[in-house]
Amino acid sequence: MITIISGTDRKGSNTQKIALEYQSILKERGIDAKILSLVGVDVGERNADFERIEEEILIPTTTFVIISPEYNGSFSGALKLFFDTSRVHLCWWHKTALLVGVATGRAGNLRGMEHLTGILNHMKVMVHFNKLPISSVDKMLDSDGRVVNEHTIMAINHQLNEFFGVDKK
Fold first, then answer.
1. Domain enclosing residue 154, as ranges
2. In the chain, how many domains are there?
3. Where are the alpha helices (DSSP H) in 14-146?
4. Average pLDDT per run of 10 along the chain, which is 169 residues long?
């Protein structure tokens, strides 16, 4: 099972739009991927809803695509708290992850993806080497929230080809 995590709890975020774009591209390739949005998730409490997310989504997932917005030079506190609240050994150990950074600035959350890589490696998650920074994300999207920048679409496809074993260059 593949799960795309939209790594913020903000409604209507560009992070969610990029998550939907990844899901759409994967669907075109015949790959089913579910989106897990942190919007409305009580990430700080192990309640019945959180445990349902673990049982139905996190534990069965073998591959994560994590879309991580830049928050103060790192990634969102909601995403970190989500990790901290989860049963790490059941939800994360020995799984793989593909990282995508999203920012309105020019670095595409490079620093945040490095922070996230360190945490995921500590949780025994194998992170793909090609972490894609999407800079100026607000200028990459059309009014429907779709990526319209040709170079960004090419970079997304290249990253996905590498990760899913299509690109043999």
1. 2-163
2. 1
3. 14-28, 48-53, 77-85, 88-91, 110-122, 137-140
4. 96 95 94 96 95 97 97 94 97 98 91 96 97 93 92 95 73
d(CA 147, CA 165) in angstroms, rounded, equals: 23
- Which pLDDT does position 40 carry in this prediction? 95
Q: Is the CB of residue 22 less than 8 Å from the CB of residue 156?
A: yes
User: 95: Cβ–Cβ under 8 A, 6 or more apart, which residues?
Assistant: 61, 62, 63, 64, 125, 126
User: Which run of H or E residues covers position 63?
Assistant: strand 63-69
Rounded distance between C-alpha atoms, residue 101 and residue 15, angstroms: 9
Q: What pLDDT shows up at residue 166? A: 67
User: Does any domain span residue 168?
Assistant: no
